[in-house]
Amino acid sequence: DSLVTLDGVTKTYNLGGTVTALDDVSVSLDEGSYTAVMGPSGSGKSTLLNLVGGLDTADAGTVRVDGVDLGRVSETRRAEKRGTAIGFVFQTFNLMPRLTAVENVSLPLVFDGWPREKRLARARDVLNDVGLGDRYDHKPAELSGGQRQRVAIARALAPDPSLLLADEPTGNVDTDTGAAIMRLLAEIHDRGNTILLVTHARRIAEHAERIVHVRDGRIERIEAVERRRPYD
Ligand code: ADP
Ligand code: ADP
């Protein structure tokens, strides 16, 4: 079954001139699949991810996630979906500097109304899952780049989302750390999560099962890949 369906999606930006960031894009993601969107800078990758993540809405066409047409629900409902059903991982981690790892990871659960003890317990569990069981009380500044990204991944996974979105997750870490992040994403996929990853780098995209090549806001082709093993 498909978890995400884009049907005839168009998105334009008007800033001085008009830029068509996405032009009549149709694609769907099966539940449990691992897809990479790959293309040069400015090809529309982030726009696509933001639409699937409900951070923005399409001008034409529909974006459905888990049965919900994101263009037809209120901003409040979209925000709710984004906080729980959809997990986001960014290139820049976006952690709260004054909060510890466990507090950062439990944040989405605050918005979801979990009681304090329950959400801290869940946050510790997820930190264990990403290999940071010994870093609960560290603040972002006390962690390495790779550890910060793992905290960000744990935060995205805390509400047990049906979809994990990652925008250049290895963009701000060195090659070895990037390989460890990609291994972690592969493990998360192996546990049954659906992942949509955006990257300009083929070496990274090859960790997915399928590469959607975009150029000038259009899908050029969709390529099935032999997953890189052992994820290097
Ligand atoms: P990519 O992620 O592949 O680099 P983007 O989706 O960020 O591409 O951008 C696609 C096109 O849309 C680019 O031409 C970009 O300049 C334009 N664009 C993206 N976001 C905005 C915005 N908020 N305002 C104006 N133009 C934008
Ligand atoms: P990883 O491979 O997980 O990214 P590193 O080998 O880079 O970890 O870091 C090893 C240790 O050094 C970490 O446990 C971390 O606490 C510490 N460390 C690394 N980078 C920084 C940093 N920029 N600030 C503070 N501590 C750091």
Automatic annotation (TrEMBL):
Keywords: ATP-binding, Nucleotide-binding, Transport. The keyword Transport applies. The keyword GTP-binding does not apply. Residues 4-232 form the ABC transporter domain. GO terms for cellular component: membrane protein complex; plasma membrane. GO terms for molecular function: ATP binding; ATP hydrolysis activity; transmembrane transporter activity. It comes from the Archaea. This is ABC transporter domain-containing protein. It comes from Halobellus salinus. The chain holds residues 31 to 262 of 301 of the full protein.
